[in-house]
Amino acid sequence: MSQKFDRIVVVGGGSAGWMTAVALATGLQGRASIELVESEEIGIVGVGEATFPSIRVFNQHVGIDEADFLRATNGTYKLGIRFCDWQAKGQDYFHTFGHFGNLSGSQTLWAQHRRMGLPESLEGQCIPSVMAAKGRFVRPADPGHFTYAYHFDAALYAEFVSKLAIGRGVRHTQGRIVEVLRREDGDVSGLLLADGRRIEGDLFVDCSGFRSLLLGQTLQEPYVDFSHWLPVDGAWACPSERVGEEITPYTRATALEGGWAWRIPLQTRTGHGHVFASRFVDEDAARRQLMAQLDGPAIGEPRLIRFKTGHRQRLWVNNVVAIGLSSGFLEPLESTSIFLIQDGIARLMKALELQRPLNESDVALFNEGSARRFARIRDFIILHYCLTRRRDSELWRYVAGMELPQTLAFKIELWRRYGVLHEYDEECFDQTSWLAVHTGMGHWPEREDPVIAEIAQERALRALAGRRQGIAAMVEGMPLHHQTLQQVLR
Ligand SMILES: Cc1cc2nc3c(=O)[nH]c(=O)nc-3n(C[C@H](O)[C@H](O)[C@H](O)COP(=O)(O)OP(=O)(O)OC[C@H]3O[C@@H](n4cnc5c(N)ncnc54)[C@H](O)[C@@H]3O)c2cc1C
Fold this sequence. Notes:
The protein is an alpha+beta fold. The protein has two domains: 7-49 and 153-228 and 309-358, FAD/NAD(P)-binding domain; 76-151 and 234-306 and 378-458, FAD/NAD(P)-binding domain (3-Layer(bba) Sandwich), CATH 3.50.50. The chain contains 15 helices and 22 strands. It has helices spanning 15-28, 54-61, 66-73, 109-115, 127-134, 154-167, 213-218, 283-291, 337-352, 360-386, 394-401, 406-418, 431-440, 457-476, 481-489; strands spanning 7-11, 33-38, 76-78, 80-84, 92-96, 149-151, 171-174, 177-182, 188-193, 198-200, 203-206, 223-225, 234-237, 240-241, 251-255, 259-265, 269-276, 303-306, 310-312, 316-317, 320-322, 328-329. Strand 1 (7-11), helix 1 (15-28) and strand 2 form a beta-alpha-beta unit. Helix 1 runs parallel beside helix 6 (154-167), helix 1 (15-28) packs parallel to helix 9 and helix 9 runs antiparallel to helix 10. The structure holds flavin-adenine dinucleotide. The site of flavin-adenine dinucleotide has 38 residues, from helix 1, strand 2, strand 13 and helix 9. InterPro entries: FAD/NAD-bd_sf (IPR036188), Flavin-dep_Halogenase_NPB (IPR050816), Flavin_halogenase (IPR006905), Trp_halogen (IPR033856).
């Protein structure tokens, strides 16, 4: 691998490609030339409308103004995800971007709540969960209160970011790559386009989507297959017209016979999709089930996308680094793909900013960290499935009985036996997220920690009721989500 990265070529103009290009242009400030190649003929995957709060960090880092961004991308605010019918039909819970008070010691909020056997949901103790239930949204006055993310049109976001990147000196080349040229040492030396042009570079960032043109097809890097645990392998996507004025400030994920359906509200339409496992439900039935979920009249025909959950074993091989779908895909249940794009960019920038030549250990660290990140998110997503009490179809019987990755089995055991929310390195989701899913799925520790009884029952009850009432009163005074949006967009 060359030690000099004066010419960086980004292959692909979807969200991964343009986010990488703008971040490199912003971070490297002219220390390398950056060229992005994409093919209009091939196009982009064009789905991916829900995000995780880290997107705000990225936007701020590259200097994106929130109101401009929301205007340009048909964007709305997101406070978390409402999961319907996952534990059992008719039961739902909210995965919040907020928190549930203390997580340790005698004042551990969830444990006191549990000890009192309170009939109301723990969600009443969390500001954004109550906001979501009431359809309200304001940006937090104090960032410590809660955080938030967005829903947006992924194609519009790529277009928006492309303008920024080009403004910062990224060269934009349209053309279909028909051959990837290699040097004797295995490095990629250039790309041959269909019209005969050649593009040369020192470092190639593969953002070519599911094709994985450089890392997968050319360098033949093996795929680590997660489909044993995450058996979904297809999705039907179809937006619908928006019905009514109100816009829910959250994503909805509804468990179905052989998968689950997403509902993502944008300003002018609602994104719908059905992620399904073809082993358990056939394609046509999955399509029909999606169409039955739409809020309003469909916009266009449903589109089918195929995938396999997992990731490339190494994301950086020779002088090729894969970011986005070309590096892997974990299914969209927790909206983590754009987070993984950011994660890849951050690791790449860190390597490029080293004040010494890169060596094999730097690349090995990049690869090991990235693989662990995929595994951590994989475990969190599996948690949503494996705790189910549903046994009404093949998919649910399968996921309830499947053998779990050891890392996840250990975490579940710690929670069940001791009420401990263990964290590994490279976690993407913190203890609050794990708590939200465990408790939302009705999965509580078997025993009470004796330290919890240090607080008198009456005092604990008063504290819980006070917090719940305080949150309810605060949320009551907030504007509805669409009102806040109108104000920001104005
Ligand atoms: C069903 C589904 C739902 C999803 N939902 C979410 C979600 O809610 N939230 C989220 O964060 N993510 C989601 N994602 C993931 C999200 O869509 C992607 O992470 C994101 O769009 C980035 O895609 P990409 O840029 O890697 O690939 P693409 O958008 O596919 O871009 C690939 C690019 O490579 C170019 N290319 C490929 N081959 C060639 C060639 N030979 N020559 C020239 N150019 C070439 C194409 O032209 C294109 O520009 C979802 C994905 C799927 C499949």
